[in-house]
Amino acid sequence: MELKEFPQCPVETTLKLLSNKWKVLIIRDLLNGTKRFGELKKALGTITQKVLTTNLRDMEEYGLVARKVYAQIPPKVEYTLTDIGYSLGGILDSMADWGSGYKEYLKLIEKQKRK
């Protein structure tokens, strides 16, 4: 990836890197440590193998994820967040806080409607 491929706006740059829900959820799961491909697929539930592979490759290209291949049969591949990938943890924490607050807001609205 080259700098010229990214938008001028830093918010747009972040959105480009996180571009879809799967990348955000992959980061969420890797914040807890290194995972094998199968562990990530199981944790993410409905993601297809192709979509997971594509997102992991993108994230590796962006420098967010490191891929380690072990020379053994069957092949073993592990994924770990890089330092810059781990730095996205604060963004995910903020998203979690906002999401919790929004759910509380919705509960209040529903409670008011019942009155």
* Strand order in space, largest sheet: 1-3-2
Q: How many distinct beta strands?
A: 3
Rg, nearest Å:
17 Å
Mean pLDDT, to the nearest integer, reads: 92
| Count, helices | 6
Strand content: 5-15%
* Envelope shape: globular
Helix proportion of residues, in percent? 55-70%
Distance between termini?
Answer: 55 Å
Largest sheet: 3 strands, antiparallel
Summarize this entry quickly.
With 115 residues, this protein is of the alpha+beta class.
Task: Summarize this structure as a short list of keywords or feature phrases.
115 residues; three-stranded antiparallel sheet; 3 strands
Architecture overview:
The chain has 115 residues and is α+β, with helices and mostly antiparallel strands. It has six helices and three strands; from the N terminus they run H-H-E-H-H-E-E-H-H. It has helices at residues 10-18, 21-30, 37-44, 49-61, 83-86, 89-114; strands at 35-36, 65-70, 76-81. A three-stranded antiparallel sheet has the order 1-3-2. It is globular, with a radius of gyration of 17 Å. 13% of the residues are buried. The model has no long low-confidence stretch (mean pLDDT 92).
